[in-house]
Design brief:
16% strand, 4 strands, elongated
């Protein structure tokens, strides 16, 4: 599905939620749905499969989401299904999250480290990034055993690489050019 279409659906839902003042709960629902889509390949295949009869698709969506998400979120899921746009749900969740964070002055970051960071380190890093960027920080933390030490921080399309490997590479380049 083209990204512009996902953005249009996300924008429509966002404006509706803002008007009815239920932006936060719908945002939380869509974050959970996005995580569910990332974890469940069966759900993604189901949503992408146009061969499943519409009545069966709606029945499965009702069973999965009715009473478990906000009424607006639930009706939106059924609306997408009626329009045969369920396959773009992941992209819509992503676009909605972008609109939400932008409206609230929040920047999404992704931190990659060798081992989990302590609460204290997370707090220090968050405060440092808040000061540097002048925005609220929402961090997705990920561990990667290939990182020997240090941290890699992604802010939008920019990657700040403070890993041991990157620092050694920089040191090597400085030594070679001297």
């Amino acid at each position: 599905m083209p990204r512009p279409l996902a953005r249009r659906y996300a924008r429509a839902l966002f404006e509706l939620c803002r008007e009815y003042r239920n932006l936060e709960p719908v945002h939380q629902d869509l974050k959970k749905i996005k995580r569910l889509l990332e974890e469940s390949h069966e759900l993604v295949r189901f949503l992408d499969n146009p061969v499943v009869p519409p009545a069966k698709r709606e029945s499965i969506l009702k069973e999965a989401f009715q009473g478990k998400v906000e009424a607006v979120t639930y009706r939106f899921l059924l609306f997408l299904e009626a329009r045969r746009r369920s396959a773009c749900l992941g992209a819509i969740c992503e676009a909605f999250d972008h609109l939400y964070t932008q409206a609230h002055g929040i920047v999404n970051t992704r931190w990659t480290v060798h081992d989990e960071l302590s609460r204290h380190d997370v707090h220090l890093m968050t405060e440092h990034l808040k000061k540097k960027l002048g925005l609220e920080i929402e961090a997705e933390r990920k561990t990667d055993p290939d990182i020997l030490g240090g941290i890699k921080v992604r802010v939008g399309d920019i990657v700040y690489d403070y890993t041991l490997r990157a620092q050694l590479r920089k040191f090597q380049q400085n030594v070679m050019s001297a």
